[in-house]
Write the C-alpha cells for this entry.
Amino acid sequence: MATFKAMVIEKAESGTKAALADFDEANLMDGDVTVRVEYSTVNYKDGLAITGKAPVVRRFPMIAGIDFAGTVESSDHPDWKAGDKVILNGWGTGETHLGAYAEKARVKGDWLVRLPATISTREAMAIGTAGYTAMLSVMALENHGLTPASGPIAVTGAAGGVGSVAVAILSKLGFSVSATTGRPEQADYLKGLGASEIVERAVLSGPPKALAKERWAGGIDSVGSTTLANLLSMIRYGGAVSACGLAGGMDLPGSVAPFILRGVCLLGIDSVMCPLPKRREAWKRLETDLDRQKLAAMTREIGLSELPQAAADIVAGQIRGRVVVKIG
C-alpha cells in the first residue's frame, strides 16, 4: 500500500496535536524489517505522547505507540523472514522512531522478539509493555531471593496496566499480594486477579517517615515519588522493591534509612533498552506464568480512532487493566 492509517503527532501552536491520518509508506524511517502491525496497546507513556502532557516525542511528525505485535512483511535481517510473528517493546519507537499506531512499521530486526508459540498477537498486546515490565519486575524480586515464603508483596497502582499483570503473575506464583489502589471500587476486580489484600492508597500517600513499621517483604511500584518513598520505609529487613514507573512523579522524597538500617534494595526496571536475552526470558515466562483467563478479564479492545480518548483516560488514572488497540 502506498499509504496507510496512522496516529500521527505534529507540532502545533499550543504544543502538539495527534490525529488519525494517511501516512505515506515512503516516509517510514530506516530499518531492515517491515512489519504489518496487527495490534498495539495503550501505555502511560503513549498517553503522555498523544495528549502532549510531557515531551515524550523527540521528532516530528511522529507516529505514536511504543509497542506492537504483527507479521513480518519483508526482511533484510538474518533472523527474520516474511510470515514471522513478532513483538516489539520500546527501543524509542513512538519517541525517536516512528511507532506502533499504524498499519505498517519499519524497524531494526535487532529490536524484535519472536512471538511465543501459544500467545496470539492480540494477547501479546494485552500484555504489552506494561505486562512485560511487570514480568521484569517479578524476575528482579526473584533474583533478589524473594519467594512466597518471604512474605507478602505490595503492588502499587494495582488497578493499572503494570499493576494488574503484576498481581496476576505474583498470585499464580504463590505470593500473597497486597494491592494498593486509590480506587476502592476496584476491590473485587483486584481480588479476582489474585490479590489477597486491598490497601488504600492513603496508606502510602502521607509524608514519608525515614522508617515505618515493617509490613511487606517486597514491592512492585509503578507510581514513584511519595508512594515509593513510603513503600520503601515499610519493607521488611532484607527485602526489595522493583521500581518501574513514575505516574506519581519523578522525585523520591525519602530517606537512606531503609537501605542502611534494614538492608532494603531498590531495583530499577527499564523496559525500553532492556537487552534481548532478558526480553526473551520475560516473554518465555509470560507464556507460562500469566493466567490467560485473568489476562482476558483485565483487557478491552479499541480502534485507532479511539486512541485520543484512551490517552486522556490513562493520564488521568481512569484506565483499568489493559487496553488492546486493533490496527486496521
About this structure: Residues 128-268 form a domain with the Rossmann fold fold (CATH 3.40.50.720).
